[in-house]
Amino acid sequence: MKTPVSVLRLPRGPDPNSRGFDPNSPRFVALCATSISASSKPGADPASLQTEQRARSMMRERFLRCLISMANKKIQFHMYEKVKVDATFGASDIDVLNFQVSDLQTPIGVQTEALIRCQDVISYSFDM
Amino acid sequence: MYTTSAWRQQTPRDWEHYVNKQVRVTAHGQQQHRGWLHTVDPVTASVVLVQLGESAGGCSVSVVMGHAVEQVEVVGEADEETAMRLSSLFRSEELEARGGEEEVKRRREELRGWLQQNRVPVEEVGEDLLVAGVLTVRPPYAEHDCFSSNQMVLARIQGLLARMPTAQRSSGPPAAGPRLYGGPHVGAVEAAEDRANEQS
User: Fold this and answer.
1) What is the DSSP track for B21-34?
2) Cross-chain residue pair B151–A92, CB shorter than 8 Å
3) What are A90-113's pLDDT values in tens digits?
């Protein structure tokens, strides 16, 4: 009997029927911080929770609009070990774990399509 | 001045305190980034910094990933004009499309007609349009002005808006036929659409 060969799989995408970002999804639990930050202690003041939620949605909306405006732009990524690469930004997944990019200019050549793991990125920049 | 290796553990209200401030962010390996803090993503704690140019248009943006942030220092406050520029960033198209009050009203009527024509229940609540009780479209009623917690409805209505037969719209050719969305990737859906439009 042949021994099975291990297959490298990408993490499973979010549930297609979900209604958006889900901090309880197995994928998020496996790959991200244990909890998203909130001051939701038991018995917390509902009014303060509401202002917190408003702040959260305002900042998340700004961030998502920033992501949208990055589409099809030239982005420079600064990664660990002083690696700097240029690429054309395509998309991000909803919990910001991977970026899909095109024409990734690596030191050993140009990769037409690529996924960049966000944990490997320190910062990225682009011009508007 | 604020130092922590636990930047990600801050609450959204702590982060909000830095919005529209001029900051210096130290990232992994003593990388320094300076700029106006546009926002902090509450999910990943990534910091969006903007370096405003001299002219009204140009500016460069750098984003420091939340896991790499080591230190954030406030170095300056924004005046009113800068704060305005920061808030309207990434929404310039929207502001251009706004036009006059008349124009916005005309767009609302047009959109309401188009939705009704497609047998989608719609009612007016003040300036907003409430679609099927779960989705709100705010002025100036473009694709990016739809708000809903139900993602499937959001994707369908945005698709419908994109196919609205108007001469005014500048967002590329309308896609043929109904479009179905499988994934909840917010940025991904729109980026994928752009690419699809380019190819066709």
Assistant:
1) EEEEEEEGGGEEEE
2) no
3) 999 877 889 999 999 988 889 999
CB B36 within 8 A of CB B21: yes
Bridge partner residues of B52 (DSSP): B59
- Whether A18 maps to a domain, the answer reads no
Provide the domain limits for residue B56.
2-90
Domain match, B100 and B184 both = yes
Among B33, B68, B187, beta carbon nearest to A67: B187
Residue A76 lies in domain: 71-125
Mean pLDDT by 10 residues, chain B (200 residues): 66 89 89 91 90 76 91 88 81 59 83 88 88 86 84 88 68 43 43 52
CA distance A7 to chain B (A): 24
User: In this predicted complex, what is the ipTM?
Assistant: 0.73
Q: Is A109 helix (H, G, I), strand (E, B) or coil?
A: strand
